[in-house]
Amino acid sequence: MKILVVGNGSHTNRRILPSLANLNYVESIIVSFRNEINIKFENEKVSYMKYDEILNSDIFFDVIIIATVPSAHLENLNKLKDKGNILLLEKPISSNLDMIFDEKFKSLYEKKYIFECLMFKYHPLYQKYLEIKKSNKILRIKSKFTIPHIDSSNFRYNKNLGGGSLIDLGIYPISLISDSLDTNGKLKKIDYHFDEKLGVDLYGSILAENFNGTEIEIEWGIGYEYENYVELTLENSTYTFPFIFSKPEGYNAIYEIKKNDKIHYVNVGTYDQFELMYDEIIMNHQLLKKIHTYAKLITKYKIIEKVKND
Q1: Engineering a disulfide at 256: which of 107, 169, 240, 298 sits with its beta carbon 3.0 to 4.6 angstroms away?
Q2: d(CA 177, CA 230)
Q3: Closest to 187 (Cα-Cα) out of 295, 301, 306, 300
Q4: Cis peptide before 92 (omega within 30 of 0)
Q5: pLDDT tens for residues 248-268?
Q6: Alpha-carbon gap, residue 110 to 294, rounded angstroms
């Protein structure tokens, strides 16, 4: 199996390439570069090729992973759409919502095997969350994903590159709850803070209620204490899932059950969430295509649009 990775930055070298190299059925990985090679991960499976040379070649890839800045995702997808069978885009699909809602993208999404990379949805910790959520009456879902400020040169502070906290962090808790929300009337309160000086949003929150009357409270932001969890409140207990969205390398996942003022910890195990995601999508892309429909994608991005326009 031959894989192309578009984007040769820190995230590619630190998380994407090591995960792909661990998959025994992956024979070769080509990493594209525009001006110079940024080699940080060396492996016998990995080689490098100029982006323009790839476009002008007749090479066909089993999988293409687009890991550029969000503003360039759909442009790269359009250029590479005929060079691969399975096309994965790092979240978000695009920072330009108009392009996501466009009929041309809808048509392409429905014809090809296109997936948005939200690695937390392929981890056993998330599966435990779903299992408990589906088998119990949930009174409240509370989730938060906030990080401290990072280097000011990072693309997250650049609106032209697709920066801002909403599509970088907010997309995680919104993805967590979007399937159960009615965007036409169930969003009770939206808070959205835009920093005029930086030109990007730094905080957001949603208060909502799902079809079953479950209260939903989600928050995200840049420039705050690091928090990354989802909490389920039941009638007699509370389940907390730390590091639900992003996990440090080598993290041993757990979740907590609080009942009668006692806390019980359940061990889930140590997994590479990127390796799990790539393996699941590559091996089961036909089945997943039926689940990850354009309609579901648009439901989520309509919530994001509603937050931006609030």
Answers
A1: 240
A2: 11
A3: 306
A4: yes
A5: 989 999 999 999 999 999 999
A6: 7
